[in-house]
Structure prediction request, 600 residues.
Amino acid sequence: MKIVESDFQAWMGGIQARTEAALARLLPPPHMAPARLHEAMRYATLEGGKRVRPLLVFAAGEVAAAPPERLEFAACAVELIHAYSLVHDDLPCMDDDVLRRGKPTCHVEFDEATALLAGDALQSLAFQLLAEYRLAEDPRIQLKMIDLFARACGSRGMAGGQAIDLDAVGKSISLPELEHMHILKTGALIRASVLFGAHCGSGLTEPQLESLDRYGKYVGLAFQVVDDILDEEGSSVTLGKTAGKDKQGGKPTYTSLMGLAGAKQFASELLADANAALAIFEGRATRLAQLADFIVHRDR
Amino acid sequence: MKIVESDFQAWMGGIQARTEAALARLLPPPHMAPARLHEAMRYATLEGGKRVRPLLVFAAGEVAAAPPERLEFAACAVELIHAYSLVHDDLPCMDDDVLRRGKPTCHVEFDEATALLAGDALQSLAFQLLAEYRLAEDPRIQLKMIDLFARACGSRGMAGGQAIDLDAVGKSISLPELEHMHILKTGALIRASVLFGAHCGSGLTEPQLESLDRYGKYVGLAFQVVDDILDEEGSSVTLGKTAGKDKQGGKPTYTSLMGLAGAKQFASELLADANAALAIFEGRATRLAQLADFIVHRDR
Prediction:
């Protein structure tokens, strides 16, 4: 077990470093005009986060025998969208947060207008990467990937989840409503990451793709449940963002609706569901299984 | 001349109505959850503007014998991006404008967070349309269109021009700097509109495509010069937005740098350049010529 664990850590470190290097290369250089905007885009994206979405892209890509250079572009596109969403979420008119990944948030480090534009331009750049480089054998599959991705980002995906989240502040909402919100807000992009990895390869059957989508759905939800647990238990130092923020802000969370023990139980069930969805691969989806475990058992 | 004029007016009205109907159909319905977000997206996009960019898509598409149903999707994508850029530009941290197209701006009618998310989701929806529907004979050309479009929106296109614009407030900048800013801020999307129309068809030669790109560059710049002239001369009632705003805000404009007469002269020269770029089509680019004329001689 210890060997498996260290092997996973090494794999994870490798993907994280590869993603970081690719992002640094694909983002406009900081000295290129408009320099302040490009600096803000880099500030918001580089040296940050666990790169969970890129890890999912690569892990799913492995199952589909996808060429790593394709996965790299797909992983960067997903991470650019994630970075843009954090920049916009942190703005004063949204969550009004000043700390992110242990650093001042983008609008604090730069200014609100620059942060707004940096987020906008990060979204555009994500779509540019998906269209500029070859990501799939068949260009029609690549168009399908962009379509899927745009939906995951849009009003019935991430941005929609964000809108429901805002609307829920200070209100009492039901567990199914909370689940629906998170399936859109964080789940959509996580599911898209898994399917991206799969589509960069070829030869997966429809039932296999559907299983991966189910895996992505469970993992996406588990990710959020664990986020709420960590927010309840953790300190700002460990998390690198303001702890207890959601609770203070009157936002409904899994821990507020289910209690801490209930939320932990739910996370375990989602992990079991995610693993069950991988059964179709008969043990060939090791990285995805390890990642699900990592997402549920992480401490930050 | 009068017959030509009324024929152009009828054509323009037809495209505007067609674009409006297509946008109303392609935007998520207002009652669909998250309803407030969808209402804001529709509010920001429908019943507004001259639809200059869709007109350019259709006019260029005519030259390339492109199927109108493809042009419709391309026109809507461009208009969604334009609408998103206006919503974000009007936000308090940007231009802080309260009036747009004769109505309260999106964040005044809804709220800042909703306006931010509506802009974000409009950008995603634009890319979704470009990937979901068939826009070109060859899917590889369609990917190229999305790449081109993403660049026109991004940090070295529209968002970048916006950043330079913000940075220029209260500063004295040179005419070449002002031109560079506008080529990015409004020019990039206008050029992309023209090339979109062309790529929806087929059979144009490289020199013809290059001529269209040149036409788009001149028309885009002329559009901005005339905007500055109207802002100097017009009233808020005619313009449907706050007149004299740029001047008051200490923003450099063509009229502040060249004087009113100088700016008018420059607009005429750009119109001549745009027409010269169409010479390669030997009279088959009537709508594009009429549109350039319309853009330069409009009174709002």
